[in-house]
Amino acid sequence: MKFMIMYIVLVSVLFIGAGCKKKSTDSGNNCLSKLNFTKIAFTDDAGNELSKDTTDWTNESTWCQEEYNLFQTGSVDLSGSGTSQLTTHFFPNPVSTLGSIVVTGQQKCPVQFVVVNRSLQVLDTFSVVYPGTGYLIKTVNFSDSLKYKSGNYYRIYFAAHSTGHLFFYKGHGDLKKG
What's the pTM? Predict the structure, then answer.
């Protein structure tokens, strides 16, 4: 009888263990291995571009599912928002303490930002509502040495939304903590 109970317990543990699997960060398309955080657009303290990375601060047509999953869109207020051409820019890069994100466009819309490390671990999130004219500057603080290590690379993802069109403008910008 003891042998039968031990056998049932052992078989149950094996079935439970076989059913558990480690959470994967790979959606099958090897998303994380394709991300290169080390290619940055260098900018000075005044926002002048010193070198260009053509993949940074542009509208990207495709993202992998892990990138979309960084954003919580359920509570985004889309009232009065429209779809328009936006541009984003970040300076200075490398950044030591404070960085600035500049957003310009033609119509009001909410824009979400997510700062991640190279493992796509979320370090910070914030949102702005672009008013529809002029430019908007959002200051980002990178002084927390527990989150942002000097010499490391990070990525800021951004996504702009409008009524009936989530993620109409989306992309990323890589930065280096100086």
Answer: 0.80
